[in-house]
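Look at one such:
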Amino acid sequence: MEQLPISAPRSVVQLPDGTHAYVNPADLPAPPQTGGPQVVHIHQAAPDRTVQRVALGSGIGAGAVGASIFFGPMLVAAITSMAVSLAVVALVVVATAWGLVAVVRSVGGPDGKAAAKTLSKTRRRR
């Protein structure tokens, strides 16, 4: 390789045989130019982005797609929170009914046992 003047821009590259050499960047091949945005077909897109690609392709704006990306997980979290709250309320209702039946059976005597049986029969019918 020829000697380059000190002021010339230089890059160090590693040759296939493992040695290093100084190269003038102007002599390197230019990187390939892209002719526009990369086209990704829907069947090649990642599953979590397919809906957004379809939405953008159908003419919805980027703002709507951005909102769906932002508010989608928040909606899932809100629905999950409501489901957990309802499950806790159902557990409290079941525990209260079980406790009430146990108290009525132990305190009420024969009338309490008959009332508990009637209560349990009406629940089985539903």
In short: The first helix runs from residue 50 to 57. Residues 45 and 108 are 68 Å apart (CA to CA).
